[in-house]
Write a structure and sequence with these properties.
Length: 309
């Protein structure tokens, strides 16, 4: 079917229509977004400036933090500005661009979390071969592959959605352009498109999640042969990874691995993976990792000395 776009813009309903609730949400999400940017930027700067964090694990962590900033920035600034706007409109092209970048950065995060699980598996289960397997060339390849895989995933989803005819109405019951709200507005049968998107996005989430959990199960089984001190250190690192993985993939699987129907809780669940997960990433990794905390303290001391000069 040839695409027909009689609709030139979409109107977001946002999180709430209550003016008082919107004001409270404006302050809350402004603070949350500031914390997301500063927290993840702190991790990036800490890893870049600290020699003690020169291992591949922290290289991947800094990239994950960078992606978290980009991922949150595709939705949260728009959400914040719309909370004070009387008319929450976005152009068709703006909507499609937002859709593409949400899935680009979300897909990159999914692949990076898988890469980080593989890195931990090699470090714990094959320590003697670690520097050979996870070389800096391998790190660059894995990060590049994550970006390429996410780009292909996002491009496929975007092309499927862009081909849908939007003839009206144009009101999106959400705070950003996502798959299910857009499928609901299309003036054609979306069953096949919905199944293809589930196959592309939902299946990717499930497979990545299963691979991640399987790798951590293998790690846990391997740790039985380690000393208690080695077990505690490995479990602390892996525990942080598992927490981030669960917080990210749980809501994604709920949203993207089901038939093309919208639920009243979708916006709340979306807040979880677009705001809460990027916010908790630096907290989880810094609080559960002694080396990161020490490096942050050294960075703070250096910054204070420069300011005194």
């Amino acid at each position: 079917m040839a695409k027909t776009h009689n609709v030139t813009e979409f109107i977001f309903l946002g999180l709430s229509s209550n003016p008082e609730v919107q004001k409270v949400c404006f302050v809350m999400f402004l603070l949350l977004y500031t914390a997301i940017v500063l927290g993840n930027l702190l991790i990036v700067l800490t890893v870049m400036s600290s020699r003690s964090l020169g291992s591949p694990m922290y290289f991947f962590l800094s990239y994950l933090s960078f992606v978290e900033i980009c991922y949150a920035s595709t939705t949260v600034p728009r959400l914040i500005s719309d909370l004070l706007a009387e008319r929450k409109a976005i152009s068709l092209w703006g909507c499609m661009s937002q859709f593409f970048f949400i899935h680009l950065f979300g897909g990159t995060e999914a692949f990076l979390l898988t890469v980080m699980a593989y890195d931990r598996y090699v470090a714990i289960c094959k320590p003697l071969s670690y520097t050979t397997i996870i070389s800096w060339q391998a790190c660059a390849f894995l990060v590049g592959a994550a970006w390429v895989g996410a780009f292909v995933h996002s491009l496929v989803d975007s092309l499927l959605v862009f081909r849908l005819p939007f003839c009206g109405p144009n009101v999106i019951d959400h705070y950003f352009c996502d798959v299910l709200p857009l499928l609901k507005l299309a003036c054609s049968d979306t069953v096949l498109i919905g199944l293809l998107i589930v196959a592309n996005g939902g299946t990717l989430s499930v497979i990545s999640f299963v691979v991640l959990l399987a790798s951590y199960v293998v790690i846990l089984l391997h740790l039985r042969t380690r000393s208690s001190a080695g077990r505690r250190k490995a479990l602390s690192t892996c525990g942080a990874h598992v927490t981030v993985v669960t917080l990210f993939f749980g809501p994604c699987i709920f949203i993207y691995l089901r038939p093309s129907t919208t639920l009243s809780v979708d916006k709340t669940v979306a807040v979880f993976y677009t705001v809460i997960t990027p916010l908790l990433n630096p907290v989880i990794y810094s609080l559960r990792n002694a080396e990161v905390k020490k490096a942050m303290k050294r960075l703070w001391v250096r910054a204070m000395k420069l300011e005194e000069r």
